[in-house]
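Before surveying the methods themselves, let us examine one representative protein, pairing a chain with its fold in C-alpha cell form.
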Amino acid sequence: MNIFEMDVYKLAMEVSEKVWSNVNEWNYFEKDTIGKQLVRAIDSVAANLSEGFGRYHYKEKKNFCYYSRGSLYESRTWLEKAKNRELLSDEDFAYFKKNINSIGKILNGYIKSIGKYPENNSNKVEESEADYSISEHDIFSSE
C-alpha cells in the first residue's frame, strides 16, 4: 500500500481542496486573517501523513500522525471561527465538520495500528519455488 491509497489521506486531500475553494472566494482581509491559517492547518493534515509515511521507523511515522491530528484540531477551530463570522454556509460547515470527524476517527485507528503489525515489506524480494536447473537450451549451459 502507498500513501495515495489510504482513505485517511484521500479524505484529507479532498477536504483541503474544498477549504481552498471556499477561502479563495473570501475578500483580502478574511483571507489574510482566518483564510491563511485555515489553509495551512488543513493542508498540514495530509502533508504530515505523507511525511510520516515516508519515514523508516514506526515511532517517526506515529509522531507525524500526531502532528497531523494536531493540525486537524487546529483546522476545526479555524472552521468554527469562519462559521461564526459568517464566512461559511451552513451546508459547507456541515460538510467540513462531518469529514473532519471522519478523518479523526480513521487517523486514530491508523495511529493505533502503527508498530503493531509488520510493515509493508515491499523492499523484500520473495519468489515462489521455481526450477532453476540448467537445461540443454539455456544460453549459459556448456555444450
Q: What stands out?
A: DSSP finds four helices and no strands in the chain.
